[in-house]
């Protein structure tokens, strides 16, 4: 008779994502994962195939959650500046409320593996392109009547967010970040 798994795979995936987010890919051992998830090595391999495959799944989950959050704001908000303020403020609030100062799993992974792991680099580039497309599609639906080129602004916005997500790991000055967000959005005149 086959053994029934005594854990929820999606819950385990979410927990593993947090562990990788806190420690990074290389610093997270198989022992860390099985202990944190409360599963045996055999259950781990039966379910996730290995540490690398689990990490890739966690990264995909994180990236899809981010895209869904953007889509939610774009569906609800028809004013460009208000939508961007909501997104940037939500990102800032999430980063500042994190007592462990994990930053961003995508930014952390980019720093750790993006320069030397082709699969991860392509995955991150795909995510970057998906975000760019999501913003571009949203902004095309609305009246883009600003002096700055739409695609250039999206690139600037994405660079700003990645930088903010790294800096917030050591700097929790909300007022300074909020001022930077305001200045960024003031480009839209």
Question: Can I get a quick summary?
Answer:
The protein is built from nine helices and no strands.
Structure overview:
With 189 residues, the chain is mostly helical. The chain is 74% helix and 0% strand. Helix 4 (51-76) packs parallel to helix 7 (118-141). The longest helix has 26 residues, at 51-76. It is elongated. The protein starts with 8 loop residues before the first helix and ends with a helix. The relative contact order is 0.11. The mean pLDDT is 91.
The helix count comes to 9
Number of separate strands: 0
What about the largest sheet? Answer: none
Our Rg estimate from Cα atoms comes to 19 Å
Q: What percentage of the residues does DSSP assign to strands (E)?
A: under 5%
How are the SSEs ordered, and which strands pair?
Elements: H1 9-23, H2 30-37, H3 41-48, H4 51-76, H5 80-97, H6 105-114, H7 118-141, H8 150-167, H9 174-185
Helix pairs in contact: 1-2, 1-4, 4-7, 5-9, 6-7, 7-8
Note the main attributes of this structure:
189 residues, 74% helix
């Amino acid at each position: 008779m086959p053994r029934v798994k005594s854990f929820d795979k999606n819950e385990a995936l979410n927990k593993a994502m947090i562990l990788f987010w806190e420690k990074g890919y290389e610093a997270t051992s198989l022992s860390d994962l099985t202990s944190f998830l409360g599963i045996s090595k055999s259950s781990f391999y039966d379910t996730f195939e290995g540490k690398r495959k689990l990490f890739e799944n966690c990264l995909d989950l994180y990236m899809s959650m981010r895209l869904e959050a953007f889509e939610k704001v774009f569906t609800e908000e028809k004013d460009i500046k208000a939508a961007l303020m909501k997104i940037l403020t939500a990102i800032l609030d999430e980063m500042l409320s994190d007592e462990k100062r994990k930053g961003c799993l995508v930014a952390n992974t980019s720093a750790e593996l993006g320069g030397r792991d082709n699969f991860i680099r392509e995955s991150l580039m795909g995510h970057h392109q998906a975000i760019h497309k999501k913003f571009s599609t949203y902004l095309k639906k609305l009246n883009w009547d600003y002096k700055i080129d739409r695609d250039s602004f999206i690139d600037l916005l994405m660079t700003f967010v990645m930088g903010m997500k790294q800096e917030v790991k050591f700097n929790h000055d909300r007022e300074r970040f909020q001022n930077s967000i305001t200045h960024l959005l003031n480009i839209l005149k």
